[in-house]
Design a protein that fits this description.
Strand order of the largest sheet: 1-8-4-5-6-7
Helix content: 25-40%
Number of domains: 2
Number of strands: 10
Largest sheet: 6 strands, mixed
Strand content: 15-25%
Structural class: alpha+beta
Distance between the termini: 48 Å
């Protein structure tokens, strides 16, 4: 058996799990397995991540209304920095079967599409593209290209840009999905799991900033409370979450 200190590395996912287990095991309320924790952790991180977009929009509106100050009170900047972790800049690959450029499978939000790394390609609706193509004055050109998007990818106009020959010249800036958190472990002789980020199962820490640790704990406690059928845990976690949001403004 390896000594316990061999596995000890200070990570947010281990800290969050220890906090969650400490709270739900109080007064013998229950226990969640590593597999359950990882499922709850994935859902919690995704919920917070999706909320960042809306929080940023609201924070910008509040700042424009002079409700926020600069410096340490620059809330939009703090949220933006958390979002930027997931920003990806990469070329789009051409889908020869569907004759369009593929959207990356890890894309959460496609922000910009560029031609030759300089010209931004404007997104238009399917209902509008027909009129543009038929127009003598507003038809898409290589200097002012446009694209439509569907479940298969994006189609670029003029058609000369929508070809395999343009692979490498069509790039995108998008927000990717967070990687699934995975608390990995080694089982001791008595069956207890001990944190081990070196196992082959694929350790992955949370990708949210450390400042969101409390939010993660509260979200996971809600899911855990439902799992062990302890409504008191859910209510307490929800109450603390609301208070935490109010304190953050």
């Amino acid at each position: 058996m390896w000594p316990l200190f061999f596995y000890y590395i200070c990570t947010m996912i281990d800290s969050v799990r220890n906090t969650v287990l400490s709270i739900i095991s109080k007064d013998n309320r229950g226990y969640i397995t590593p597999m359950e924790f990882n499922l709850f952790a994935k859902q919690a991180q995704m919920e917070i991540f999706e909320g960042l977009i809306y929080k940023y929009s609201n924070a910008v509106n509040n700042q424009n209304g002079r409700n926020y100050n600069a410096g340490y009170a620059d809330i939009p900047k703090k949220i933006s920095e958390a979002i930027e972790v997931f920003s990806i800049y990469d070329s789009l690959s051409f889908d020869a079967i569907n004759l369009r450029f593929s959207i990356p499978s890890n894309c959460f939000y496609l922000d910009k599409v560029l031609y030759n790394n300089i010209i931004e390609i404007e997104k238009v609706s399917h209902s509008k593209i027909h009129n543009l193509l038929m127009s003598n004055t507003a038809a898409p050109t290589t200097s002012y290209p446009v694209y439509t998007m569907d479940g298969f990818g994006i189609t670029i106009y003029p058609s000369i840009l929508n070809s395999a020959a343009q692979s490498g010249f069509i790039t995108s800036q998008y927000l990717r999905y967070p990687l699934d958190p995975n608390w990995t472990y080694t089982s001791l002789s008595n069956g207890d799991p001990v944190f081990n980020p070196s196992v082959s199962a694929g350790y992955q820490d949370f990708e949210l900033p450390l400042s969101y640790e409390t939010d993660l704990v509260l979200k996971i406690l809600q899911y855990s409370g439902v799992s062990i059928r302890e409504i008191e845990v859910v209510q307490a976690a929800k109450s603390e979450e609301v208070q935490n949001i109010q304190e953050k403004g």
